[in-house]
Amino acid sequence: MEYDVKDLNLADAGKKRIEWAERNMPVLRAIRKRFEEEKPLNGVRIAGCLHVTTETANLMRTLKAGGAEVRLAASNPLSTQDNVAAALVKHYGISVFSITGEDNETYYRHLASLLDMKPQITMDDGADLVATYHKKNYDFDVLGGTEETTTGVIRLKAMADNKALKYPIIAVNDALTKHLFDNRYGTGQSTLDGIIRATNILFAGINVVVAGYGWCSRGIATKARGMGSNVIVTEVDPVKALEAVMDGFRVMKMEKAAAIGDVFITSTGDINVIDKIHLDKMKDNAIVCNSGHFDVEINKNYLKDKAKKSYTARDFVETYIMEDGRRINLLADGRLINLSAAEGHPSMVMDMSFANQSLSAEYIWNNYKKLEKKVYVIPTAIDVNIAKLKLKTLGIEIDELTEEQRKYLSSWEIGT
Ligand code: ADE
């Protein structure tokens, strides 16, 4: 078996952590049990380019239980948990190619190792694997792929619009049981977790500036408020800005917020959301970090070029001392803070995201002949079923429509 991980001696610790996560992933466990019995992915080659976490390990185990041959590489150079990578190789017989802190060259070499298996299905988080496949003319066709995150879906939809996409994609991110929970509650909690682990700051009573008001950023804003912060939201979309206002947040331009904030968190998917003009206005000791997929949201080159000195104050904290003496603290070099300094979203929420991934792989395998080179949303029936299963595992029962209620509603549908 081929692999490239940091140290196989870490495998036992990784296995215990994977099993710990599994306890909070009941929906995925149920799918794994069915997959073990039915083997719906028998012999299918699946390449995953995902954050190498305990939760992803449980997804890989599920796909393997379904009969698939799987390979895994990281979707970000800083998001690999090395003991998880080791455990997947040693205890679960899964080929992993990822080492935390790997340089760009190694990162892309690892993606190439995924393509060496000639995957029939790709699983991406950020679309780097699809993009790598599209850059060359490989001698094999991929039948379909899945995409986990908002940024990846945006990239893939652009490729589909330009008629460049070579195979169909299921946008797992667009499933309701994914983005309403993972993006909102997962990113909300894990972002603050990452900032706290990196800095040990108190959130109560400070000014937190959140850039963006999509599902991820509204999760971050809400959790920060819950911790007692005064939260300011910046937005470019008038509707989202209005939502933030009516949700009770202060909304203003980043230029104004820059002078007020103690902590800045970006989660927009766009570049230089925190730019020179903002960095120049920040208070001494401001903390700046990013929770979006790519490390482009903060103009870190400006900090690096303009600072007269910098030093590593703590793990994941680089303090830049500017010409005027102000200190600006950049966390995790502007990479996603929740997966760099913390462990990503909790298992409880990844349970639904990865249930969507597993069932999307099964759906692609059963339906690829009917799918076009487009980006699809997961069928509603699968999405709703995941919500039902999650409620069941939480021991929550909900009402059902009576026959009378059903008839009443359908009479409106036919206009009588
Ligand atoms: N993305 C965000 N959190 C994650 C996690 N815990 N595992 C895999 N991907 C993630």
What does this protein structure show overall?
- The chain has 416 residues and is an alpha/beta fold.
- It folds into 2 domains: 8-178 and 344-393, 3-Layer(aba) Sandwich (Rossmann fold); 185-340, 3-Layer(aba) Sandwich (Rossmann fold).
- 45% of the residues lie in helices and 15% in strands.
- It is built from 17 helices and 15 strands.
- The chain has helices spanning 11-23, 26-38, 54-65, 82-90, 104-115, 128-135, 150-161, 176-199, 215-226, 238-246, 254-257, 276-279, 300-306, 337-340, 347-367, 380-393, 403-413, and strands spanning 45-49, 69-73, 95-97, 121-124, 144-147, 169-171, 207-211, 230-234, 250-251, 263-266, 286-290, 309-314, 317-321, 327-331, 375-376.
- The strands form 2 sheets. The chain has an 8-stranded mixed β-sheet with strand order 9-8-7-10-11-14-13-12, with helices on both faces. It has a 7-stranded parallel β-sheet with strand order 3-2-1-4-5-6-15, sandwiched between helices.
- Strand 8, helix 10 and strand 9 form a beta-alpha-beta unit.
- Helix 1 crosses helix 4 (82-90), helix 2 (26-38) packs parallel to helix 3 and helix 2 runs parallel beside helix 15.
- The longest helix is centred in the middle third of the chain and has 24 residues, at 176-199.
- It is globular.
- The mean pLDDT is 97.
- Adenine is lined by residues 50-51, 53, 55-56, 186, 339, 344-345, 350.
